[in-house]
């Protein structure tokens, strides 16, 4: 079981901002996951990876792929209180789900 979080590299977010956006994405996708998958993921160590996405278009394309594979996913739009404008898409979480299925969506991306 695995979850992949894709954060945009083109926004120049600081480390704290990036961490917050990754956390928002992870939790949002987790909340939309069925209880059986949630429990399996929690019981297996909650594996996560944070990956680089080069822009908004990439995140939406990956979200579409996740949707087609039946994976839980969540796009984060920032409130705009600090470093980016309101509504800016900052991150995407894919999964939790079977590692091979998550990798089928995000496996070509580099680690952040």
From TrEMBL:
Organism of this sequence = Halococcus salifodinae DSM 8989
Q: What is the lineage of its organism?
A: Archaea, Methanobacteriati, Methanobacteriota, Stenosarchaea group, Halobacteria
What protein does this entry describe? Peptidyl-tRNA hydrolase
- Keywords associated with the record: Hydrolase
Its EC number(s): 3.1.1.29
A single GO molecular-function term is: peptidyl-tRNA hydrolase activity
Q: Which GO terms describe its cellular component?
A: cytosol
Q: Which reaction does it catalyse?
A: an N-acyl-L-alpha-aminoacyl-tRNA + H2O = an N-acyl-L-amino acid + a tRNA + H(+)
The EC class name is: hydrolase
**One matching Pfam family:** PTH2
Tell me its family: Belongs to the PTH2 family.
Describe the function of this protein: The natural substrate for this enzyme may be peptidyl-tRNAs which drop off the ribosome during protein synthesis.
